C-alpha cells in the first residue's frame, strides 16, 4: 500500500462515491482508478497538492481511515470496527479555493490488526475496572 518511506502510493487508489439519494453512510460505487502526480481542481481548475487528513488519538496521530459499512457504536471503543475492511485516505487540496478531494488509497485490509487493538482496549478497560473494584472493596473493608 505505501512506498518505501510509508507514503501512500498515488498510482493505486480505490475511488468511493456515494450517490446523494442513498445517504452519507452508503458505500455507493467502488472503482479502482489511477491518480496522477498533479491534479487539477474540479471547482476552479487550479492545481491541487497531495496531503492527508490527520487523525489525532490519545498519545499519537495517524492517517484517517475509510471503514466499510455504517458506523456501529461501541461502549468501550466509541465505534466498533468488527473486522470490517479499511483503507488509508489520501487527500488532495486546491491551493486557490481550498477544495478537498479524498481517495481510499491502496487495497483495503481485512481489519485483523484493528480488531486485535479493539480487543486490547476492552481487556485494558476490564483490568482497570477490576482494579478499581478491588480498591473500593479494600477501602470499605478498612472502614468496616
Nutshell version of this structure?
The chain has 144 residues and is an alpha+beta fold. The protein has one helix at residues 112-143; strands at 13-17, 29-33, 39-40, 47-51, 54-57, 60-63, 65-67, 72-74, 78-80, 86-94, 100-105.
Please give a handful of descriptors for the protein shown.
single chain, 144 residues, alpha+beta, seven-stranded antiparallel β-sheet, two-stranded antiparallel sheet, 1 helix, 22% helix, disordered N terminus
Could you explain the architecture of this structure?
- The protein is of the alpha+beta class and 144 residues long.
- The protein has a domain at 13-111.
- Helix content is 22%, strand content 34%.
- The protein is built from one helix and eleven strands, in the order βββββββββββα.
- The chain has one helix at residues 112-143; strands at residues 13-17, 29-33, 39-40, 47-51, 54-57, 60-63, 65-67, 72-74, 78-80, 86-94, 100-105.
- The strands form three sheets. Strands 1, 2, 3, 4, 7, 10 and 11 form a seven-stranded antiparallel sheet that branches. Strands 5-6 form a two-stranded antiparallel sheet. Strands 8-9 form a two-stranded antiparallel sheet.
- β3 and β4 (47-51) form a beta hairpin.
- It is elongated, with a radius of gyration of 21 Å.
- The model is unreliable at 1-8 and 14-30 (pLDDT under 50).
Low-confidence stretches: 1-8, 14-30
Regarding quaternary structure, what we see is single chain
Mean pLDDT: 74
Q: Span from first to last CA?
A: 61 Å
Radius of gyration: 21 Å
| N-to-C series of helices and strands | EEEEEEEEEEEH
**Largest sheet properties:** 7 strands, antiparallel
- Percentage of residues in DSSP E strands: 25-35%
Q: What structural class should be given to the helix and strand makeup?
A: alpha+beta
Helix content: 10-25%
What is the number of strand segments? Answer: 11
3D shape: elongated
Number of helices: 1
